[in-house]
Hints:
By secondary structure, the protein is α+β, with helices and mostly antiparallel strands.
Amino acid sequence: MRITRDLGRSHDWSLHEAVLDDGRRVFVKQGADFAAEAAGLRWLAEPGAVAVPEVVEADGDRLVLEWIDTGSAAADAAERFGRELAALHAAGAEEFGAPWPGMIAELPMDNAPAPDWPSFYVSRRVLPFVRLARDRGALSPGDVALVEEACVYAPEVAGPPEPASRLHGDLWSGNLLWSGGRVVLVDPAAHGGHRETDLAMLALFGAPHLNTILGAYREAAPLADGWRGRVPLHQMHPLAVHVCLYGEAYRGSLLTAASEVLAL
Length: 264
């Protein structure tokens, strides 16, 4: 393999374009343990529902992926993606969690299973990152208390119980590559969870053609009543992660989400 172009850095790792001995272009990440990302990509690929890059190599501190040529976001690709995402979720998961240790950005994430989604979400997703943000000085004890109160309330407002869905887990717009008339998913934090989590993440930072994606998704897999009101609940985790990574810039958004959960 020959590195042909440096693409900068992301979090703790460097990014490169490279060419394999057989002439294939690949995308290379170096400088961290990418086992969770590789496992997640392979798991998402299993049902054949969504497009993900092939994992060419995952060894030590290097991850080599199929190269994806990207283009502009298009409405027809968004509609297709909505249907494909519904099919991915419907493929399901054996439990709430995953059989590998999780990562999101450079932060470890507990994928140990839990008996139901609210308990998994609160104990494995929201509270660990809220407490890490407190320890890093980005949240006050009062901030933490507010989020903890929202977590206590979470089972009451989580909506009807659903089986575990097969989630991407970090589905913000930057992890959607628009290529060849469809969306290719990258950088997952994959696990079995609640399907509304992926949809709330799409909305958090504004995915292109979001209404088209959601419309196609809902045609293929209708959502339980009240799903729009539950968006803040599902956004508490990614907002807590962002507070850990980037500090107080996301504190207000996290506290607003927690307050909205308490108002449901």
